[in-house]
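Sat 14:20. Reprocessing the chain from the morning session after the first attempt stalled halfway. Input below, unchanged.
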Amino acid sequence: MLDFKSLKDLLPLADASFVSLRSTKKIYVDKTEYIYNLARNSQPRILTRPRRFGKSTLLSTLKELFEHGVKPYDGHDSYFKGLAIEKLWKDKAKYHIIHLDLFSINDECTTVDEFRQNLNNCLESFAQQFGVILPVDADKPSKKLKALVSNLSDQSVALLIDEYDAPLLSHIGNKEEESEVSLILKGIFSAVKIYSQKFRCVFATGITRYQDLGLGTAGNSFTDITNDPDFGACCGYTREELKQYFADNLRYAASIKAGCSDNEVTEEQIDSLLDSMAQWYDGFCFDDVASSKVFSTWSVLRFFTDPLSRLLPYWSAEEGLGLPQLLKVSLRKINIQSLLEEVASGNIRVDYFKFIQSSLINPEANPYALLFQTGYLTLSQPFIIGDEVYLDTPNREISIAFANLVAVRLFGDNLRFTTKYSVETERILVSLDPNKIQDHFNALFASIPYEHYPVQGESMVAALIYFYLLGAGLQPRCEESESKGRPDAIIDLKEHGITIVFEYKYVEDSDPKILDAKLYEAEEQVKSRDYGHNIKSEKKIARFALVFCGAQSERKIARMSLVDLIEK
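Finished this time. Tokens:
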């Protein structure tokens, strides 16, 4: 019988350290084949991924490799015993490790001077560790690093920089401080270029592309592997990795879902659970040939900590280094009508060069590129140089988080999607009461500040309702082609055995006769085109028609009816 507490204790939740995970026998998903490919040559590399995707664990694994290799030491087995790299790594040398965790170094700093001093202290500590006396005039981090590595042997240094953009992100919005931080980081990166012969390995991780640091030519020596297919799954979990490393956690969760003992769980039930988890947490694609998809590391681990095995949204727009405010500012640059339509269609396209070269400190930065860097959008198709880049939301959890982000842009502080809000929305939809649904949606439209109101039209109504349902945790489908036409929206409420079909109409006139006529038109369209006729899986199909009145004095659903209820 599986014990939930024991399973939970083995999850790698709070500690990103490779050595700590291995020494305490917590679950470590073997990514050392990627580590080997990173470490086999001395080319400086940068990898960007959203927060909490396992970047720090990847970097700490690399640190242990260069510090101690793959052989036993200090009276214990190598921490790489049994991992892929144990048989691949032949290098027996030991290296000078300079590990700069810029998130920690910058943590709790309120000024750039404090960050600069912390970084100086950190570099002085490494100099003392390596027996290097720094010159008195080495008063800046760049001078200290250059003086430090210049006194070390060629090919003897492994420089590992974790969260290289953390200091910059903490000062976003203050141009003077941004410039100061950029100069500090530029100095660190210039040391790599000037003293390249000293470095056996240089690897940096972050959220945003290195262009964001304003490095200029200092960053030219680095190769950005963010979209490299060889490293597409180096962070995050693949489905196969979940089955291999979290087999007991999956079996326990599947038993809760099935209401049986873990000994009775079938492989089909485990696969069914994985399918459900994939809808919520999978779908992140970072490589330019779209060959790899991974689950969110943090979300999967949080799911396994829930004793009831509930699929809940764990992604928070409030996490991380000033990013929420940055994203809100960035979204102001997007035409809200276009945003809603593109996201609803799952067809967001970005010019290749704007996607690759976009910098968050550039006022002309592409908002969609930033949304990709921070995990709200992901690659949906392969791309090559010069092609448009296609993006989409990766999964249900991110759809909810993204809808929350857009809600701030669209509704101000009038609406925040919460679990309570989601439950209420689903309850009202399940009632199949057109009056209740109409009132519920009209509360949404009434919450939009006048100055934020989108361009009027049927597409606006469809997009707003789509985003609202998305934020409520549902998965609406828009304009899905059927043999006789395309209904405006389909919502599957599988737990209730109900599928809802919506047909929208829009008028500017508030004349009751015109509204009644438009409602009749929508009802007849639903029936004549038999919307939803190809839906096979649900017990009931409820088909609704509604009319939105766009007159400035109205701006609400003025008519709504339940056209019919089809029992399957």
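The longest helix spans residues 175-194.
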